[in-house]
Amino acid sequence: MRDILNLLDSVLVEANLGFGEIPNTSVSAVTNPKTGQLYTRPELFVEKIRTGSPFTLVAGGEVVIDLSELQRAIQWAQSGPKGPSGVITLKTTDGGTVKNTQMLKTDEFGSKGSENLKVKPSDVFVTTDQEITDLGNSIDAVLSAGGFPASEMYSKIANNPALVKLGKLGDAVIYMSKQANEAQVPVFPPDLTADEIKAIELYASEYIGALGLITGGVPFMRGSREQFEEFVGGSLSEMIMFFPKNVSNPLADSFSVVNNSTGHAVKISSKAAGKGAAPSLGGIKFPDELRKKYPEATEFLDRAQAKESSSVSQPFDLMNYIYSIAPNKIPKPYQSLLPFSPDLIDAVAKSINTNKPLPRKIMGLFEKQLSAKVRDGKASDGGKAWWATIQDMMRLVNNDKVIPNFRAALIESLGYNFVQLYTKVNGNKLVTQAFWPAKITGQVKLKTKGSAGLMKGKMSVEISPGGEDLETPSGQSREEAGTLPAEEPKKLGTPKTLGRKRQR
């Protein structure tokens, strides 16, 4: 599923967005990436304003609501006992105004006709339930999960039994894929219904557009194919394609491309932001200009994805780097242990594998950073030491901003490692355009799937909607993480004198 930034407006005329059409008791067709549940219609109305997603007008065309109207829209959405009440007039980004009754109630606000037609990538391509992050940059892993060489993509579509079963609709998808394979702009057959056109536009376009990108039929509107391939170090036609069944990834939930010769992972995406499964800190390539612009951040990220750094050693290696640039930021219990020696890291790994205890003097220092629940739990000493270190290291990066320009460096670097595709219906044609580097925005934080008792790979990075939120630190609280503060921060005043409750 695409998120609301890139959902294309419906061609189905149902009604306008009068308050009676968007009660809070009715759900939209768009999933909230934070909860995994469908937005209610008022929630989607507000979220489209928050993210700058356009609204379609009943009279034709579209408008974007000025972000300054967000609070008024929130109040309106909650004004009645069952959601919005009355009519609201909002300022638009082009200097005009628009009433909610002038906006078209499109597919995303509740019509599910097109969504039920089985042309999504998950309907067409046979893959495992694994997420992209679980596959890493292993070509063998991607192939075993259902990936295939890009050169085979059209044959996978043309001979697809799931599409053949759909009759006229499946024939249309195969026909349009053939055009994309010949580097042409796909043309819709004349006998499709509005729902079938919308299903192709929203869902089949994810692989028809990718096919056009591979064959050269999709133009680059930002950057160029030549520049992209030079950066990647290989041709798009030589990539390995993968359409994951799990669609929770915020940046590339449609498909992934992996460079077979270099191991460099590149995502081709139909969406630019959102929250869900996080891309792993691996396979990211940094342009030279970003290395010069953000030396500390790119060095940190280089170390995070270093091949010699394992899932066990990674947090210790990164804490060593933080110690080298900001020793005064390290929690006091670690000071006598830093930099962590290879012998200590090996002892932690052995403890995790064999449950052999760590020396009591050393373990006592790590325990100072653990809650009683984790400290007294059944995990090995090594698992507890790893958990304390990774949580404190992530907190230094996420909350304390100890790595200069970390968010900017990661966001810009990810942009070079993604190609964004935007598809829309233009007359009887399905038009796809490519943009590279991708424009990615959002709040960034490191995260781990592991725990004191279970290793689950290296860290990943989560991209959440919106910009840098300085009032709400990204990352877990100490209570959530099961670690304790190194020292109690000084109190700056009461909630009343501060004007708000301090967040920790």
Describe what you observe in this structure:
The protein is α+β, with helices and mostly antiparallel strands and 504 residues long. It is built from 20 helices and 17 strands. It has helices at residues 41-51, 70-77, 121-124, 132-135, 139-144, 153-158, 161-164, 168-181, 194-215, 225-232, 288-293, 295-304, 314-325, 342-354, 360-367, 372-375, 381-398, 406-416, 478-481, 495-498; strands at residues 15-16, 27-31, 38-40, 55-56, 62-63, 89-91, 97-99, 104-105, 148-149, 220-222, 240-242, 255-258, 265-269, 418-426, 429-435, 443-447, 460-464. The strands form six sheets. The protein has a seven-stranded mixed β-sheet. A hairpin with a 6-residue loop joins strand 2 (27-31) and strand 3. Helix 1 packs antiparallel against helix 2, helix 13 (314-325) crosses helix 17 (381-398) and helix 14 packs across helix 17 (381-398). The two termini are 34 Å apart. Mean pLDDT is 78; it is low at 1-15, 247-254, 271-279 and 465-504.
